[in-house]
Amino acid sequence: MLTGALVRRLVDTQFPQWAALPLRPVEPGGSDHLIHRLGDELTVRLPRHEGAIGQAEKEMRWLPRLAPHLPLAIPSPVAVGRPALGYPWPWAVSRWLPGSVATVAELGDSTAAAVSLAGFLRTLQSLPLPDTSPADISGLPDRDRETRAAIARVAGVFDPDRMTAVWEAALEAPGWDREPVWFHGDFHTGNLLTVSGRLSAVIDFGGLGVGDPARDMMIAFTLMSAGARAVFRDELGVDDATWARGRGWALAAGLNAYCSYAATDARVAAATTRQIAEAIAG
User: Fold this and answer.
1) Residue 253 contacts residue 187 (beta carbons within 8 Å)
2) Which CATH class is domain 101-281?
3) pLDDT of residue 136
4) Which fold has domain 4-97?
C-alpha cells in the first residue's frame, strides 16, 4: 500500500540529504500520483498506477530544455527515485511550485487567461524538436471503441446523439498535415496553477509529446466560457479541423474520467460534467 510512511522511507534511504525535511501530503491529491511536499522547496510525486509510469524520467529529460523558453513556470525536476521497498516504479522529486489549482469560477470568463494560455501553447509549439523526442503514440482512432462504449454508458445523463456527432466529426476531420510540434498532452484546468488570481504555472507533463497539437485544445473546454474560448481560438489561430479534433479529445477525456471517478468523487463529477457539456456545445 502506498502510504506516507513508505514515502518517508523511500526519501530517507535514497536521498539522505533530505531526511531531516518534513514530509506532508498535498490534498486533494491527483488521480495519477500521490503527492507530498518535502520541506518548503520540494515536492515528491509517486505514480499510483501503471498508466502514470515513466513521467519522472520524461520530465527529468525534457522539462529543463523547455522551461527557459516558456512564458509560464513549469516543474523543475531535481531527482528520480528508484523502485524499492516494495514500491515498483520510478518516482520524482521536483521544486515546489507555489499557487492554487485554477478554477472555472476564477478564470473561466477571463480573456486575459485565454490569451495567456494561447501564448503558452503558441510558444511551446514553436520550439524546435531535438533529434529524439517523445513520440505521439496515441491518436483519436485508438480511443474509438472505449469512447463509444462510454457514450452508451452515460446516455441517461448526456445526449448520446450530440456526443456521437461530436465524436464522429473529430474522427472524420482531416488529420494534422504539418510538421509535428510539441504538445503538453493533458492540458486541462487541474494542471494550471494561479497566484493572486493570475496564471502562474503549468504542471504535469506526463503526456508531453510531439505530433498533432489538437489534444491541447482540451483547456478550452475544461476551463473557458464560450466567450473566452473564442478569444483563445482566435489568438492561437486554430483551424476548423484541429478544433474538431480538439473537441473530440475533450469529449473522450471527459467521458473517461466521468466513468472512472464521478461515482466516488463529487469534484470530478462536477468538472467532467462541465467538460462534456462544453465539448458538446463547441
Assistant:
1) no
2) alpha beta
3) 65
4) Phosphorylase Kinase; domain 1 (3.30.200)
